[in-house]
Design brief:
Chain A: It is found in: Cytoplasm. The complex is a heterodimer of chains A (274) and B (67). With 274 residues, chain A is an alpha/beta fold. Chain A has helices spanning 25-35, 58-61, 79-92, 114-126, 139-148, 169-178, 192-201, 210-213, 218-238; strands spanning 4-6, 9-11, 15-18, 39-46, 68-71, 98-101, 130-135, 152-155, 184-186, 205-208. In chain A, the strands form 3 sheets. Chain A has a 5-stranded parallel beta sheet with strand order 5-4-3-10-9. In chain A, strands 6-7-8 form a 3-stranded parallel beta sheet. In chain A, strands 1-2 form a two-stranded antiparallel sheet. The chains are: A alpha/beta (274), B mainly beta (67).
């Protein structure tokens, strides 16, 4: 079986999805189911004091017994906020230590602050967290994060929520080639073909939220993404043919074509081609 | 009278209370929450033991949808 292994745990789906931006929990649940994802990200936020009596809880809709919940630090701009958020998450999820770290550097781009991220990784790993880390697509930083003990590196394909697709496949390629831990594209995927391209490059998985949640029909897009990730993975494993600009090689036999006496420029007589 | 800051909002309490009593007061009993007090996690098992004191800063969090 071709499984994804993160921190020693095996997953059959290589698509990880977020749970934000859906119109309600029913749609969230339907999209997650259609995606086939086994790992889903959640955010940690202050509860609304005094206004939450009968309010449904995300964990009732997507229980930790059915899914691997990946608490994230989205919205954190300092290492202190990120580390505190993940400590709270671990307490909330009964000691679950697999987390997604992102330390943002700028509200306009949501680009990661890698200096703060590296410091946060150091603290979290000392505290026995299993860190999947959102990173810029810098191959040196990605390798450093691996060497520090992260369980997966998750470079951006383009800015969070931008849907701009894979802007620098070459950097992703270098990161993938260098890594001995899973590399997942996190952020920037806009549509199914983007996810397929990421997987064809050799990514171990793709994490996305907005591409599904902001589609006109999120549940249908979730299904498309599932297939896109599977298709890209199979194509990667199959090994694509070499690209050739010329020397076209027809798929049908060149012998036995009914003879034409007409002369075609560049083509030998008698129905044969070189 | 003690004042606690809960999720950034000041709240007054007539008498000292512990974390478990605070959770009941906030109608959060049985909910999946986690609590941080002055920057430190309060483990669920210690909710009844931890007495809150004037000036405590508390964060009460839940899991919500996110990417």
């Amino acid at each position: 079986m071709d499984n994804l292994v993160i921190a020693g745990k095996t997953y059959s789906s290589r698509l990880l999805v977020g749970t934000g931006k859906y119109k309600d929990f029913n749609e969230t649940r339907a999209a997650v189911e259609a995606s086939g994802a086994e790992i889903i990200t959640v955010a940690i936020r202050r509860t609304n004091i005094g206004q939450n009596a009968g309010e449904p809880n995300l964990l009732d809709v997507l229980p930790p017994s059915e899914y691997t919940l990946l608490p994230n630090t989205a919205g954190c701009y300092t290492l202190d906020d990120a580390v505190r958020t993940l400590r709270l998450a671990r307490e909330l999820l009964d000691g679950h230590s697999l987390v997604k770290l992102e330390v943002l550097g700028d509200p306009k781009t949501l680009y990661p602050n890698m200096v703060e991220t590296l410091k946060a990784v150091e603290i979290l790993i000392k505290e026995d967290f299993q860190v999947m880390v959102y990173t810029s697509d810098d191959p040196i930083i990605a390798k450093q994060l691996e060497d520090m003990g992260c369980v997966a590196v998750m470079p951006l394909a383009s800015l969070i929520g931008s849907g701009m697709g894979i802007l620098n496949p070459w950097n992703l390629q270098i990161i993938i080639d260098n890594a001995k831990i899973p590399v997942l594209v996190d952020a920037g995927v806009g549509t199914a073909s983007d996810a397929t391209i990421a997987m064809e490059l050799g990514c171990d998985g793709v994490l996305m939220n907005t591409a599904i949640a902001a589609a006109q029909h999120p549940v249908l897009m979730a299904s498309a993404m599932r297939k896109a990730v599977e298709a890209g993975r199979e194509a990667y494993l199959a090994g694509r043919m070499a690209k050739k600009l010329y020397s076209a090689s027809p798929s049908s036999p060149t012998e036995g074509v009914i003879a034409s006496t007409e002369k075609i420029p560049g083509k030998p007589a008698g129905g044969k081609s070189e | 009278m003690i004042q606690l800051t809960i999720n950034g909002q000041p709240q007054q309490f007539e008498a000292p209370i512990n974390v478990a009593q605070l959770i009941d007061h906030l109608a959060l009993h049985g909910k999946r929450i986690a609590i941080e007090r002055n920057g430190e996690i309060v483990p669920r098992s210690q909710f009844p033991q931890q007495m809150l004191v004037h000036g405590d800063q508390l964060e009460v969090v839940v899991a919500v949808g996110g990417g």
